[in-house]
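Feature request disguised as a bug report, sorry. It would help if multi-protein outputs had a clear separator. Right now it looks like this:
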Amino acid sequence: MYKLLKKCGRIRRGEFTTPHGVVQTPVFMNVGTLAAIKGAVSTVDLKEIGCQIELSNTYHLSLRPGDEVIRELGGLHKFMNWDRPILTDSGGFQVFSLSDIRRIKEEGVYFNSHIDGSKIFMGPEESMRIQSNLASTVAMAFDECVKNPSPRDYVENSVKRTTRWLKRCKVEMDRLNSLPDTINREQMLFGINQGGVYDDIRIEHAKIISEMDLDGYAIGGLAVGETHEEMYRIIEKVIPYLPQNKPIYLMGVGTPENILEAVERGVDFFDCVLPARNGRHSHVFTSEGEINLLNAKYKLDGSPIDEKCSCPTCKNYSRAYIRHLFKAKEMLAMRLCVLHNLYFYNNLMKEIRNAIDGDYFHSYKREKLNQWENK
């Protein structure tokens, strides 16, 4: 259940109550694709750095270790030792990212595994069954994510099929939640708005899926080829046509700047691999902008990554030491930088929530963007 606590223009401050706890929004979901954060960060660490909700990947977990294995071990929460909310994506993005080894049909999508080339089929029902076995808090509907730009006629047909798939997802999720042996019989379902960069297709799709009374709604198919300006335009066009009493999730986005812009336009949920991926490659976010710790100027720098940061890395280690770890190819380098970057993102969301609560979001946004731009 989503409770809107405050609204200023389109900016939303809310609480999302789930079977696994309450999520304060706006929120950034920390991405653990294979039930783990890349960079040797544990679920114990996630609690220490303020993670409210974790995201895992349906497609990848269905291959390794297998959703039936996770079900046998009590579900994803028990498997990875995480008692807070988990959102699982549907496998739909793999329809996009594995475009050279897939065939899309009305019944679903035929893949070849990226691991061993074996044949795989996933449709709406299969995605829901896998996510039910994982027993995540929130399951995402199975959809097709098309690259931007794509021909209008292709996008129109794709969106219609995505709508038909969503209806099948809802029927199957209701069935699975009614079974006595289902681990999480309160599993929630989010639908996904698609439509490429075509405003009218996006708006019409938003109207149709809004009538299905789902637990939440996502805006998908962005950050896949379009400009930031196009992405912001689509968000502005679509959100008024999505239910305002449900959480709104912008999938796969993005940079700190993207997040501030999208919050201003009404988005509640975010996820992105950027903080963990950048951290593993020595790029870290600071209050003054992003820096690369491999730069020679940090060789003798005894200061923390960010003097203003209270993460475990900044409390205990210097830029010079972490640079040395990267040069020596020590795994600890990645771990310390991923911890810092995820803390930065989680703390950014906390500051955003405080700014909304205190009626100073617009000045906060201006200040942050100026700091990062000047850097």
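(second protein starts here, but nothing in the output says so)
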Amino acid sequence: MKTETTTTKPAFDPEVPPREGFIFYRTFYEALASMKNRARLHLYDVIMRYALYGEEPTDLNGEQMRTFILIRPQLDANERKRQAKYKKKAIKKNNDEELNKFFTKTEDEENDNLRILNDIQYE
């Protein structure tokens, strides 16, 4: 018997590009290993869709939901770390670009065409 259950969605920041992969731990495998083939395959798909796209599971039976509830916090923690790392890199890149603009030489300076000020009068 399947139950319609939805859990709260983690905050997936739209400014952070979608992930290309995720860590699948041995404990996840061990938690799913004792399930029947169809139930295990369905839960593998649910985990993949959740980890890669943030899709909430809606059609898990009791055993599958209990297992997912145990796995979900690790998936959420890894996603939060990935997003924080991405944002930190983006901030650093932005700061580096601003510094580069400040310290970038003009075209004349790069070509050693510095103006000579002949009209300076010393008294």
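Even a blank line would do. Unrelated, but nice: Residues 62-103 form the longest helix (42 residues).
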